Amino acid sequence: xxxxxxxxxxxxxxxxxxxxxxxxxxxxxxxxxxxxxxxxxxxxxxxxxxxxxxxxxxxxxxxxxxxxxxxxxxxxxxxxxxxxxxxxxxxxxxxxxxxxxxxxxxxxxxxxxxxxxxxxxxxxxxxxxxxxxxxxxxxxxxxxxxxxxxxxxxxxxxxxxxxxxxxxxxxxxxxxxxxxxxxxxxxxxxxxxxxxxxxxxxxxxxxxxxxxxxxxxxxxxxxxxxxxxxxxxxxxxxxxxxxxxxxxxxxxxxxxxxxxxxxxxxxxxxxxxxxxxxxxxxxxxxxxxxxxxxxxxxxxxxxxxxxxxxxxxxx
Length: 315
Hints:
The protein is mainly α. Helices cover 72% and strands 0% of the residues. The protein has 4 domains: 5-93, Orthogonal Bundle (Annexin V, domain 1), CATH 1.10.220; 106-165, Orthogonal Bundle (Annexin V, domain 1), CATH 1.10.220.10; 174-245, Annexin V, domain 1; 249-311, Orthogonal Bundle (Annexin V, domain 1). It is elongated.
């Protein structure tokens, strides 16, 4: 295991996570129980253990398992299980950085590109986190993330993604930024440049003031402006970015309510130790149904048990 993992782990822990460190943690015992469960292809027991340990604890379990059995735990899971449960447990065994790198890679692999997953990760992670994710991507896939994004996208959308990947906060004037965004809309074709430059280089408090000022000035919501003046991938990109600036929890809750199972579980795993409680609250407000209840209507069996364990409880 990478010794630097625990040094960077603070990026993935928050008080609003649903998965917390297991207090009575004995990695030797967990590794032994996991070995038995793998031999019996007992998915329920694997889920019980791995969803009730923090990611840092899972890394210790993986290392302990390898030291005692001389086998790779992820390879054991692949051999013993299949389908959604296998995929979910493999995601749980990745470090947070590896997991976000994996989600980005999955969004670009094969035919077609999942633009919204790229946007979701790039819009909800800080510049420092994205630097670390880029390094993990290079380490795992032996490819440069920036080059991969360039190869999978084009035009203004590429410019937006790269600006997000390399984002850093730059001080700006709220009034000047409002004027710049407003002026960008005056031509026959809206100028995407100021939108990309400003929305990817200011902190969220500053940007919320800018967006509110733009709405007051135009008499339209930002969403209406984007619908009216932009189209295609760049419209999608700017809309996701604005939604994440205004309320990342609400954006992620909406995504959970409308997306497919693999993406849903990817979001839940990625945010389970950070802010899944916020996302749950936003989901309830948005849909009128708790995420815990919604999962029970959509999934079943051991896969459902795993998702409920990550979600943790009813709201």
